[in-house]
Amino acid sequence: MKPYHLLTILVYANWAEAVSTVIVIVGTVTITSSGAAPTANSTSYTNKAVFEKDILAAHNFYRAEHNATTLKWNDTSAKYASKWSARCEFEHSHGPTGENLVAGASNATTSVDVWGSERKSYNWGKPGFSEETGHFTQLVWTNTTSVGCGRTSCQGKGGTDGWYVVCEYWPPGNVVGDGNRYFKENVAKIIKGKLGDTVEGGVGSNGAGWDERRNIWSVLVVAAGVGMGVVL
Questions:
Q1: Is this model's pTM higher than 0.70 or not?
Q2: Structurally, what CATH architecture does the domain formed by 43-194 represent?
Q3: What are phi and psi of 143, to 5 degrees?
Q4: Which of 36, 104, 138, 224 is least enclosed by beta carbons within 10 angstroms?
Q5: Which GO CC annotations does the UniProt entry carry (predicted)?
């Protein structure tokens, strides 16, 4: 399946400062594959408390390796994410928060590993947004302080396979503009571990390569919402 792109631009006028804020939401749908072979208990999805604990811990695993502050759980964002996932529509909600989506991963931590594994493709020499790394940059975005996630067992409903996971981030990451200054400031280089580390594989793991993962199972992934930029 070839990627397709959705672009929505919303403009809000800030009359007090005479500036406009442009929010650009880009969605990219691709066929990719998950992280390591499934090992987590199925309650990672079926038990709400376990799901929240596992997915928050997985987020903070990657943030710690990139010198970002620990995220706190946001119940408001989680309720929004749960309502959106329940629709089983594999597309972005275009809401006010940053957003990562994934369907078909075996458990909560693998869902985050799918996003985190994109860091192997990120170029710190040329920081900025790309469709290949947008999940990762939102995942470790320094200015983001909270996350809330929801999940639904869609099992083909709405064309969405398996468990559908939606995560909402506040403040949103992937802020574009000003010569990619925001990416320079908010996407730090790895300070411990290796780029191939995964939550499922553990620290120091080189992880499975994309070809190896493809032989395990396939996961549909939608790119993160791109974010916000300020136009003077």
A1: yes
A2: 3-Layer(aba) Sandwich (3.40)
A3: -75, -15
A4: 36
A5: extracellular region
